[in-house]
Amino acid sequence: MPAPSRSEQVAPAAWARVVVRPDATVVGGGHDEDAPDATDEDRTWRETMLAAVLQGAIFAGVKVAVDRGGAAATRRLTGTWPG
Description:
The protein has helices at residues 6-19, 45-78. It is mainly α.
């Protein structure tokens, strides 16, 4: 099995940072530290929506960084900006 990608490692860590308080109690009750799925019956709308928004923001940020880095590398190699 391949190692998890960087975004797969960041999303759970970011979710844990948002949900877990400094005193290690979990907001919203005794849930684990994993991000909830949309179909988790014991999670609230607020928890699932927050998880989805956070995951989307992380995904978008990583995508922009990769796209921008690729464009910059193309410019260095060819002298022109792609697109």
